[in-house]
């Protein structure tokens, strides 16, 4: 059997594993596949749920869809609460230089959550 065919099958299987989140325990975007003496970089593709505007008890009213995070981006969910603690607004999407933030306070209270552990990971944040 042709060696290039034998080499191509593990690469193809690894690409499917990356796309379906089998590297869920890792937060990195690039992994290496070792096949014999070859080191093959595999780039992880992360898709995020997107919604620009969602009020409590309602479906997404603006910007509903899916975005693909770049290497510098992560999936994010932001929640804004009124000053009495009641939920006011939620938004989701891809965000560059994302960082988890708790209880930013001005007129409203805001929380941000970021993830890259698997595709659509911000659905359950």
From TrEMBL:
Domain UPAR/Ly6: 46-123
Family matches, as Pfam families: UPAR_LY6
Gene Ontology molecular functions: acetylcholine receptor regulator activity
Domain of life (superkingdom): Eukaryota
InterPro entries with a match to the protein in the record: LY6_UPA_recep-like
Alphabetized UniProt keyword annotations: Signal
Protein name: Prostate and testis expressed 1
């Amino acid at each position: 059997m042709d060696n290039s065919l034998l080499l191509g099958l593990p690469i193809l299987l690894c690409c499917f594993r990356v796309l379906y989140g089998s590297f869920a325990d890792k937060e990195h975007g690039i992994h290496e596949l070792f096949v014999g003496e070859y080191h093959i970089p595999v780039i992880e593709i992360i898709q995020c749920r997107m919604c620009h505007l969602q009020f409590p008890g309602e479906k997404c009213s603006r910007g509903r869809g899916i975005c693909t995070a770049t290497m510098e981006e992560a999936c994010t969910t932001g929640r804004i609460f009124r000053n009495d603690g009641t939920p006011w607004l939620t938004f989701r999407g891809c965000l560059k230089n994302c960082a988890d933030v708790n209880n930013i306070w001005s007129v409203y209270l805001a929380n941000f959550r970021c993830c890259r552990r698997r595709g659509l990971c911000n659905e359950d944040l």
